[in-house]
Amino acid sequence: MNKILTLNKISPVGLNRFDSENYVCGEVENPDAVIVRSASMHDMDIPASVIGIARAGAGTNNIPIQKCSEQGIVVFNTPGANANAVKELVICGLLLSSRKILQGAAWAQTLKGKGDEVGKLVEKGKSDFAGNEILGKTLGLIGLGAIGRKVAEAAAALGMKVMGYDSFLPEGAEIPGVEIVKDVAEIYKNSDALYSMLLTTGYLTMVDYPDYTEDDFRCTMRIPNREIRVLFKREVMSHLKSLGPDSQLLGDLIDSLLSGDTETFNESLNTFLMLMASFYDTANRESFYHGLVLGLLATLIPRYEVASNRESGYGRFDIAIFPVKGQKVGVILEFKVAEHESDMESKAREAIKKNKKKNYLAEFHQRN
Length: 368
Fold this sequence. Notes:
The protein is α/β, with parallel strands linked by helices. It has helices at residues 12-15, 65-70, 83-99, 101-109, 118-125, 146-157, 185-190, 194-200, 226-241, 249-259, 262-276, 279-282, 286-297, 344-358, 362-366; strands at residues 2-6, 23-26, 33-36, 52-55, 74-77, 138-142, 161-165, 178-180, 205-206, 221-222, 304-308, 311-312, 315-316, 319-323, 331-333. It has 15 helices and 15 strands.
């Protein structure tokens, strides 16, 4: 009888492939093999009886490869096993972010009890949740492994133009429905909604969740780890450099913000938006600008701490920049939407008044 130790909960669909007459799976003594998902084995005393370790997933960073090699234990993974599940989540994220499905569903809940008013309210409010069709849009994929290829196939089937870059693809490789590019800069020049994709593909992690019952679609986001932060900074900077003579744009934008030079900041932001954003991006209004600026401010880490929608005083600020490591300047950003240019000054004063009323500076005072 062969004994297999499972260190995580493994789906019966997989375990049932082992003949019960010849295999026993679960918490066993002196196992012949180990199946592991996310559990770390680095501090584990691996029994001498083990001859093989199977990782239910692509990576093997939770398995002590060197130690296993010394003990003659074969380690293998299952790349692509969850590729379809991840593909579906990516496509789901594309549709959710472009068609405002969650926002529309949450808004519909507010119509309960409105009776005869519902028809008029729907006609008045439905245009706010139209979003944008993905048909005909360009999707840029960086990485064309098991997941990337499936995403490419699904996106192409939905009528999207798909461009892909992968430095590990052999020369002359072809993928049906995908335009393979040799330079990642081509992805940035031609893809739609680059910054929206950062939110839907794991570059940003949701810390807390929107309160849809209160018609509040805001949430706190963070860059999940150092590797993603480095990648994010590098990719954003590469995108800006691809703009040619305007590669200094981000520097001017950030420097003017921290120095209080509102004229230069306004000019830099307008230039940035004209070069990189479309009407369909800015139609998302406050949420678009919030996400865009939050992404750009990631370049300040670790010299500054950047926080979004965090509770301070009697409410939540939109974005705050806290000085660390000897820096002296801090910033609070409050986003407001003006229907007309003539309303911008009154909206700005409204934001300042809200800042004072809600005492958003409370956390700054706590940090001295």
